[in-house]
Amino acid sequence: MSTFTNVRELGGSLQKYNLEVFKEPRGIIRILQFVFALITAIVLKTYEGYIEINYCSKTNPKNVRLDFEYPFNLNIVSAKVECNGTSPIVSLGNDFSSEAEFLFTMCWVSVIYVIIMAFIYIKFREDYESNGNLALVDFGASVVLAVLWIACLGAWGYGQSQLKSLTHPDYLRANLHGCSPGPEYINCITITRGNVVGLTESLILSFLNFFLWAAGLWFLYKETPWYLQFQRA
What we know:
By secondary structure, this protein is an alpha+beta fold. It has eight helices and five strands, in the order ααββββααααβαα.
């Protein structure tokens, strides 16, 4: 009996909140923005790449593995190797942390903003629809986030492209310290790179985030006094 009462009380408390907004385009867009921002952050944060090098002797090669992950500061990815009396430090070099951190930050800013606005939509829906200032603030903030998303998309598009290029086996064979002939030559026999699909996925997801924020502006604009005045004119 107490369980049934608790369920009824929960249902009664939920009725105080109007969830109809999530059946409207504005609410649906917010849900999608939340989901895709969260997925993008997870894909970026959990990506793990590596470079594996067999070197020194073809008959009895030595092996070294260089792992890299978010935030992709390859300057700290290095290993000391030994071959024929030489002991060079092999380092991937380059730093893509600013681009990666920009994307990761945008994801969480978007998630937090959507949570705040969802609370306002549910708890203060009548105020939102009657007070044009709230709708204007929502629209203006969303414009800023959409602009930041396209900037983020451009930055990460460049960053992940460079990351792929500068960790490509052909590039490393020609430019990695020790792999090209010199005083600390270690004779890189084979260079293998791990899967980079996660980087491509993060870029595609970044584009989808930008698209959702840009597309959502129309539905938010329709809630503003500007649109209502235009309709009456």
